[in-house]
Amino acid sequence: MAIKTDLVGYLLYCGLAAHLYAAAALALRRRAFGQTAFATGFAACAGAFALRWVQLGCTPLVGMFEVFLALGMLVWPLSLFCRRVLGAEGAAAHALVAAAVLLPAGFVFPTAGPQMPALLQSAWVLPHVGAYVLGYTVMSMGAVQAALQLAAPASSPLAAARERATWRVVRLGFPLLTLGLVAGAVWGKQAWGDWWHFDPKELWSGATWLLFAAYFHLRAALGGRRLRVCSAAVLAGAGAIGMTLLWVNLTASSPLHAHAF
After folding, report:
1. Residues in the chain with pLDDT < 70?
2. Mind listing the pLDDT tens digit for each residue in 47-81?
3. Relative to the CA of 127, which of 2, 67, 121, 225 has its CA 20 to 30 Å away?
4. Same domain? 166 vs 242
5. Cα-based distances in Å from 26 to 15, 222, 253
6. 104 and 129 housed in the same domain
7. 136 lies in a domain?
8. Same domain, 28 and 130
9. What is the largest distance, in Å, between two alpha-carbon atoms of the chain?
10. What pTM was computed for the model?
11. Are 175 and 144 in contact (CB under 8 A)?
12. Domain containing 139: what range?
C-alpha cells in the first residue's frame, strides 16, 4: 500500500474525504452541503496537482499517480458543465466516481521520482494524456447518465430525456478519445518508430474507441428505438475504460507503457 505522507498526499486525502462526504450529502438531498464539499474536494486535488507540477518541473501527467489525481480533480468542473449545459444528472454519483479514482492514487500507485525519463518529457504528453484524462472523465459521466436511463421506466419520457442527455455527454467525450488516440499514434511513431504496436494498453484503448464508435452507429441505426440497448453500449465502453486504466496497469504486461499512462 503506497500511502503518501507529504503535502501532496495530505491534500489528496482531504480531496478524497471531501468527495466521499459530497457523495453522501448529495445522495441524501443535502444539496448545499454536498456542492460545497464537492467544490472543496476539487480545490484540495487542484492544490495537490499544482504542487506536483512544481515538484516535477513538467506537466504532471507522467505516471499513474498523476493521471488518477488529475482524473479526480477534473470531475467537479466537468460534472458542473455536463449538468448545467448538457442536461446530465447524477451529481452524487459523479462525486463518488471522483472518490473512486482518487483511491488508487492515494493507496495503490506510488509517486514517481523527480527525474523523469526522456520519453516522458515529450511535448506529446499533454495532448495525448490530457485528452484521455478529459475524455475518460466525461465518459464516466456518460456512463452515470446511461445507468440512470436504464433505471427509468422503459419507453417513458424520462427515459427518453435521459438517453438524449447521455448522447450529448458521450458526443462531448468521443472527440477527446479520438484526439488521445491520434496523439498517441504520432508520439509512438516518434518514440518507437511505428504508429501502432500490439501493446495491451494500445489494444484496450483502441477497443474503447471502437465501442463508443459502435454506440453512435447503433443509436443511428435504431432511430430512437430500443434506447436501453444504446445505454448498455455506453456502459460497455465505460467498462473498457476501467480495463484500460486499471487491469492493464495492475495485472497485464504492457512494456511500452510500463512507466507512463
Report:
1. 1, 112-122, 191, 195, 224, 249-261
2. 999 999 998 887 888 788 999 999 999 999 999 99
3. 2
4. yes
5. 16, 35, 39
6. no
7. yes
8. no
9. 56
10. 0.91
11. no
12. 124-261
